[in-house]
Amino acid sequence: MNAVVIILGIIIVFLVYILYKFFTNTAKSLQAQANLNYQVSGMKVYNPEATRYAYGIWLYVNTWNSNIYHVVFSRANNMILYLDKTTPTLICKMTMSDSTSQSITITDNFPLQKWVNIVISVDNQFVDTYLDGKLIQSKRFYSNTNGVSVMPKTPPDENTLVFVGNSELTAYKTLDTASVNLSNWDAYITKFKQWSSGPVDPQTVWNYYMDGNGSLSLLSSLGNYGLNLQILKDNVESNKIQLF
Fold first, then answer.
1. Where are the transmembrane segments (predicted)?
2. Better-scored residue on pLDDT, 209 or 236
3. CA–CA distance, 89 with 137 (Å, rounded to integer)
4. For the chain, which residues make up each domain, given as ranges?
């Protein structure tokens, strides 16, 4: 068989594989919404031992309690995303192959009482972090001491769940403290998703952000309540518009 034909065949197969991976890396919903004032059951992740993946979540921090850690989500022996106890500093901490941990500080001024979109994208050793659709920080999680390479630990199997809020005890082993207050905290999450077939590109993150947090669906919980807009002229109602 002609060598050129063989090479072209290999290239075509490779391109088909790349396109397949690209179009199948769709976001899978893990948790539609949750109130972190309460314990939330853990969730199974897709493709659990993959080293290329991403998580996305919308977070609203209502009030601040400086006596506790504020975990957004965590998976034991993999990663934990949390806000510091005393300052609104958002940190992502990864478990490394030598069972130590390394972290990346995403922001030291996380907004309160505002919906914020967060994406953590992992490509083996490289981690990109996004807030509200924009790339904020990137880091290579790698070190070499005495010829020993240390990189992110291969994530655990399907029996290790992912949790939102202060719900998972073992995740706290990665926090730099011997004693942690596991009280729930006053925050809310929506649209917690996972991309299980690889990291996400900036356009995918932007589209996820622009899709919104889904909080408008909360209008349905208003039941029999409505909202009218009154138009006054000389303090006398001249018109009324029903908004919903």
1. 6-23
2. 209
3. 13
4. 26-242
**The predicted structure's pLDDT at residue 68:** 84
3-class DSSP state of 70: strand
Q: 3-class DSSP state for residue 171? A: helix
H/E stretch holding 51 reads none
| Measured CA distances, 192 to 31, 47, 86, 139, 243 (Å) | 5, 16, 25, 23, 30
205 DSSP 8-state letter = H
Give CA separation, 166 vs 29, 135, 174, 200, in Å.
Answer: 20, 26, 13, 26
Element (H, E) at 108: none
What global pTM score does this model have?
Answer: 0.77
Query: What's the average model confidence in pLDDT over 98-112?
Result: 96
69 confidence band (pLDDT: 50, 70, 90): confident
136 three-class SS: strand
What is the mean predicted confidence (pLDDT) over 177-185? 61
Determine contact, residues 87/108, Cβ cutoff 8 Å: yes
Phi, psi of 223 (to 5 degrees): 60, -115
Protein fold of 26-242: Jelly Rolls (2.60.120)
CA distances from 232 to 25, 211, 242 (A): 53, 36, 15
